[in-house]
Amino acid sequence: MFTQQLMNALAIGSVYALTAMGATLIYGILGILDIANAGAYLIGAYLGWYIYYATGSIVLAFVLSMVAVGVLGILIQKFIYSPILAKPNTLSIIPLVAAVGLFTMSSDLVRLICGPYSLSYNFDFGVTSIRIGSVVLVPAWILIFALTAVLLLILWFILNKTKLGLAWRATANDTEIAKVCGVNTSNAMALSYILGYGFAAAAGIMVGILYNSITPALGEVPSYKMLAIIVLGGLGNPLGTVLAGLIIGFTEVFLSAYTSIPIPKDAIAFVVLIIMLLVKPEGLLGQKNKV
Amino acid sequence: MLEIKDLYVSYGMMEVLHGISVDVQDKELVSIIGPNGAGKTTLIKTVMGLVKPTSGQILYNGEDITNIPAYKRAGMGIGYVPEGRRVFGKLTVEENLQMGAYELKDKAQIAKNIEMVYGIFPRLGERAKQLASTMSGGEQQMLAIGRALMLNPQMLLIDEVSMGLMPIMVNTCFEVIKKLNDEGITVLVVEQNANKALKIADRGYVLETGNIVLSDTAENMRKDDTVQKAYLGG
Ligand SMILES: Nc1ncnc2c1ncn2[C@@H]1O[C@H](COP(=O)(O)OP(=O)(O)O)[C@@H](O)[C@H]1O
Ligand SMILES: [Mg+2]
User: Fold this and answer.
1) In this structure, is residue A271 part of a structural domain?
2) What band does B234 get if pLDDT is binned at 50, 70 and 90?
């Protein structure tokens, strides 16, 4: 039972980490809270569903949906956020309002195009469960861990081991000076969007598989829970986001499994966030003084 | 080498440079002095492409660079040491230097240039793997200069190198600048610390509220009554 919960918590934590990663990468480099990431998550889940039923391939569903949503991210950055941020003295509330608008629009578009009802993923893994000793593993969990691990490793590699990643980190740190060094900073921003939106799309499909149901409201809870996770992780810090996603996943699963605290599951993230901010206001891995 | 012609710059509705002309000859060390808010940083940023002028021209080696985007100016041979150092605090010392060499493809050349910078500032070599934000102000200033040297620039633009540094570090920085100039790098320094800036310079300009009000050889400027009163505490 305990191991079961542990696996479940890991799976949910992974999905949270992946969902919030997009927002983290974007905040890290543009300093805006892109709630529209939750729209990417929703659209990713639906695209994945259609691709799966059209092709019968899980792999294609993930790959094509991630690429398509990643490209959508670049378009949104180029045609919506960039022009907004290019205006002198843009108030930071303006991109936030744009993000909320984009997210609402994506939910309504999905509702209009795909219908207001829920769709079942019914991914067929061939087996319903895998038994190792006394532990029963659900195939969806394994898929989620494995894929999350691979995606996060790729992200880590790009950010820390490539010139592109160095340029990304420099741009996130000081955009003007990165420019002077020769970085085409709008490419670094595009990297945030293609990875961020792509990851959100993968997370959407994972959730569809995990709960076997997607609805046009799929993005609502993540749209605000994501904020708790990225703030908890220390705003703009990718590693912090992974930790925060796991912490929230674990807290939710274990509190609902072993206690009877009368707060709704989705509020737990915020309780954790509030406690955390009282103890360590800069977040898990945030820096006190930004340089 | 660098020629700034009749440059006007505004932030929104507010014009802060009202038709500035400055030129720097090959191998010269030129200082622009002036009080806080005169527009010195704005002038340098405009040369780097970080601020767009409303009119006027910037020529570098005879080429008009006024409308070239900032990131495309990096490989042209101008090194920039920004006001307030602006090192990448979340990157290590070595990564900061690699960013300085972002335009270079050849890894061996990058490694060689990093060693060259460590030769000038041994302190940086000792701290290669340390995050830049954890270093002292003086060390960060060395790093900012080192980063600007990574592409073997023909010219350095140095904004307020002495700001917030201990006197001993200020001297070190000015000595290094002088030495780099002696080795053939053209230098444009903008400074509130007029004393130091005019001591090492060949020529100087005084910038006040967006206008050049005086330009002369550094020697004459040091003797000039108004300059003495206003900037040299004499
Ligand atoms: N980003 C900016 N937006 C608006 N006004 C600015 C900006 N940067 C500088 N200024 C204004 O332009 C003038 C010149 O500033 P600056 O170039 O920093 O002068 P200095 O470097 O000589 O101290 C000042 O009045 C300053 O307030
Ligand atoms: Mg200044």
Assistant:
1) no
2) low
> Confidence band (pLDDT; 50, 70, 90) for A289?
very low
Each residue's pLDDT tens digit, A70-79? 999 999 999 9
Query: For residue A45, which amino acid is it?
Result: A
A128 touches chain B (CB under 8 A): no
Min CA distance, B170 vs chain A (Å)?
A: 21
Residues of A in contact with B98 (CB under 8 A): 166
Query: Bridge partners of B59?
Result: B3, B64
Average pLDDT, chain A: 88
Q: How many domains does chain A have?
A: 1
Global ipTM? 0.92
What is the Cα–Cα distance from B121 to B83, expressed in whole angstroms?
20
Residue range B35-40: average pLDDT? 93
Could you list the residue range(s) of the whole structural domain that residue B106 is in? Answer: 27-52+70-231
CA of B44 to the centre of ligand 2 (A): 9
Residue A176 lies in a domain: yes
Cβ–Cβ contact B52 with A under 8 A: no
For chains A and B, CB pairs below 8 A equal 74
Put simply, the answer to whether B71 touches A166 (Cβ < 8 Å) is no
Domain span including residue A6: 2-221
User: What pTM was computed for the model?
Assistant: 0.89
| pLDDT digits 0-9 by tens, A135-168 | 778 888 888 989 999 999 999 999 999 999 999 9
Residue of A nearest to B137 (CA): A291
The reply to whether residue B86 touches residue A169, judged by beta carbons under 8 angstroms, is no
Residue B115 lies in a domain: yes
Please report which residue ranges of chain A form alpha helices under DSSP H: 2-30, 37-55, 58-76, 82-86, 93-114, 139-161, 163-173, 175-180, 185-211, 220-232, 238-258, 268-279
Query: Domain count of chain B?
Result: 1
For A7-68, the DSSP string reads HHHHHHHHHHHHHHHHHHHHHHHH----TTHHHHHHHHHHHHHHHHHHH--HHHHHHHHHHH
B194 assigned to some structural domain: yes
> Is B8 among the domain residues?
no
Segment A34-51, tens digit of pLDDT: 999 999 999 999 999 999
Asked whether residue A196 carries a pLDDT value surpassing 60, the answer given is yes
